[in-house]
Amino acid sequence: NAGVMQNPRHLVRRRGQEARLRCSPMKGHSHVYWYRQLPEEGLKFMVYLQKENIIDESGMPKERFSAEFPKEGPSILRIQQVVRGDSAAYFCASSPPILLAGLYHGTDTQYFGPGTRLTVL
Amino acid sequence: AQTVTQSQPEMSVQEAETVTLSCTYDTSESDYYLFWYKQPPSRQMILVIRQEAYKQQNATENRFSVNFQKAAKSFSLKISDSQLGDAAMYFCAYTPLYGGATNKLIFGTGTLLAVQP
Questions:
Q1: What is the 3-state secondary structure (H, E, C) of A60-85?
Q2: Do the Cβ atoms of B45 and A91 come within 8 Å?
Q3: Which of A119, B28, B52, B108 has its C-alpha lying 20 to 30 A from B4's C-alpha?
Q4: What's the pLDDT score for residue A102?
């Protein structure tokens, strides 16, 4: 069972360009989480998605950032018009589903991908 | 607000010795999970150990064990027989349980562990 896959591993963009980060969860996992790690800091939650649905985006900056997890294909974190302050490591994690009260939710343990290191010049 | 605090930015241990990393958290929830993740220089986040808050018994995984004190909201990690490969940044993390479902992980700022040969 392959782990969580992220690509690219390294991404260099100039200010004003767009960055697209991809995350393929582990097989059987239907919930994806994105975290950002600024230099010398811990991981900060950005967004939590289920297929075709955003569950919690309370950690997402209000502008320029968006995320999706389509029915088919990987989850995408998109950063428009990047600025130097966006330079960071972006981690994706996935968790298997649990059925509670007729709805699927993420379970307790999240498995992380290797991260994408974004550098904005 | 739910917060996780790691008060030791850096720690050092001799190979084969034991070291304890501290973590405290603040929450009003009664059901939650606590985790320790390891981040080596490769930057991959590796799950070391997890603890369910409703369990009084401390979790153990080989050389890694925790001291979970729910009333004190303390969750320390003990590494026994330290090895050079244990050198890494260690993050304590918390996630609340809402009706059995979980959400985001809240991380501490990390403790950088050096292992001296």
A1: CCCCCEEEECCCCCCEEEEECCCCHH
A2: yes
A3: A119
A4: 67
Q: Does B43 touch chain A (CB under 8 A)?
A: yes
Residues of B in contact with A117 (CB under 8 A): 43
Q: What residue type is A49 in one-letter code?
A: L
Report d(CA B91, CA B68) in Å as an integer: 15
A33/B43 CB distance under 8 A: no
Handedness of CA B55, B61, B62, B68 (dihedral sign): negative
Return all residues near A63 (Cβ < 8 A) that are at least 6 apart: none
* Contacting residues of A for B95, CB less than 8 Å apart: 108
